């Protein structure tokens, strides 16, 4: 095995503790990749100014690229992923965009960024084809092969690895938390809790009334919001007035900028047809 972590500079204190405690308790040597912080902040500002809905695309792209690059370097064919059908099998298609779309990332950065992208781990469309279809690297969603109960395993992690709960889904990153709990619902009218809770209802892990009770809770308490807003504006080097102006801009689709979305759609369709043909008796 070869564990690797990408430090975006946005880890919550709980996440920092969890990473360190897990590595120490399991005796793991963890390689941490650190991007140039000014470069990444510039890219995140660019995405805010582009007014697109998936401002986490650069983060997800870099994580996937780093995993694939590391696997290829060490001749590893399988990457373990925590993605699972129990808690995240449902997502509204229009709420996101292909994080593999490097053309879109570069186009948005060229339009709104100022610092050259030199340290961001990236994968072009050709790279994705090489990693997946030539080298045969596969993502293994291992949680789909067990009876995965989220709350049960949170208790297990707490007992065995001194894990600390960081709150909502993906709130291990202050940036992701602010994006999902404020920017998405406020500017784009998107509450991702609806998709995640729907997944748990369909998998039998949650009833509808309990899900509605969770949705009734505010995404942010006032004091917590002010704290995180201060962190975000400080790191992004934005004033409250600048940020308010960005939030007031109308939302745009990712395809308003150059994109390889059509190519990824085509590859996805061809792969689906191939798999269907392979299992047809």
Plain-language structure description:
The chain is mainly alpha-helical and 281 residues long. It has helices at residues 13-26, 37-50, 57-73, 85-88, 102-112, 125-134, 150-161, 174-188, 193-202, 208-215, 222-236, 240-248, 261-279, and strands spanning 4-7, 31-34, 78-80, 138-140. A two-stranded parallel ribbon has the order 1-2. The longest helix is centred in the C-terminal third of the chain and has 19 residues, at 261-279. It is globular. The chain starts with a strand and ends with a helix.
Short key terms for the protein model shown above:
13 helices; 281 residues; two-stranded parallel ribbon; 4 strands; globular
List the helices and strands and how they pair.
Layout: E1 4-7, H1 13-26, E2 31-34, H2 37-50, H3 57-73, E3 78-80, H4 85-88, H5 102-112, H6 125-134, E4 138-140, H7 150-161, H8 174-188, H9 193-202, H10 208-215, H11 222-236, H12 240-248, H13 261-279
Parallel strand pairs: 1-2, 3-4
Helix pairs in contact: 2-5, 8-11
Mean pLDDT value:
92
Secondary-structure element series: EHEHHEHHHEHHHHHHH
Whole-Å distance between the termini?
36 Å
User: How much is the radius of gyration in Å?
Assistant: 20 Å
Fraction of residues in H or I helices: 55-70%
What fraction of the residues are assigned to beta strands by DSSP? Answer: under 5%
Read across the widest sheet, the strand sequence of neighbours is 1-2
Total number of strands: 4
What best-fitting shape do the alpha-carbon axes yield?
globular
Per DSSP, the total helix count is 13
Major β-sheet, in short?
2 strands, parallel
Uncertain runs with pLDDT below 50, 5 residues or more?
A: none
> Helices and strands: which structural class?
mainly alpha
């Amino acid at each position: 095995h070869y564990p690797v972590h990408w430090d975006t500079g946005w880890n919550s204190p709980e996440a920092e503790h969890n990473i360190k405690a897990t590595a120490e308790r399991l005796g793991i040597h963890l390689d941490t990749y650190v991007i140039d912080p000014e470069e990444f902040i510039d890219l995140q500002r660019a995405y805010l100014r582009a007014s697109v809905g998936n401002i986490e695309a650069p983060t997800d792209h870099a994580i996937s690229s780093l995993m694939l690059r590391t696997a290829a370097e060490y001749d590893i064919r399988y990457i373990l992923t925590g993605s699972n059908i129990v808690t995240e099998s449902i997502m509204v298609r229009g709420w996101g965009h292909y994080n593999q779309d490097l053309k879109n990332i570069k186009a948005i950065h060229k339009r709104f960024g100022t610092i050259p992208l030199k340290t961001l781990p990236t994968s072009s469309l050709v790279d994705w084809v090489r990693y997946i279809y030539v080298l045969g690297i596969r993502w293994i969603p291992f949680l789909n092969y067990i009876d995965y109960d989220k709350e049960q395993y949170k208790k297990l992690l707490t007992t065995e690895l001194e894990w600390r709960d960081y709150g909502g889904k993906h709130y291990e990153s202050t940036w992701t938390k602010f994006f999902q709990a404020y920017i998405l619902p406020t500017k784009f009218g998107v509450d991702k809790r609806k998709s995640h809770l729907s997944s748990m209802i369909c998998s039998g892990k949650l009833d509808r009334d309990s899900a509605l009770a969770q949705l009734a809770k505010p995404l942010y308490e006032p004091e917590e919001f002010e704290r995180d807003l201060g962190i975000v504006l400080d790191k992004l080097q934005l004033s409250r007035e600048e940020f308010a102006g960005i939030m007031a801009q109308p939302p745009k689709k990712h395809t308003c900028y150059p994109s390889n979305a059509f190519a990824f759609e085509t590859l996805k369709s061809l792969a689906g047809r191939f798999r269907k043909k392979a299992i047809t008796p």
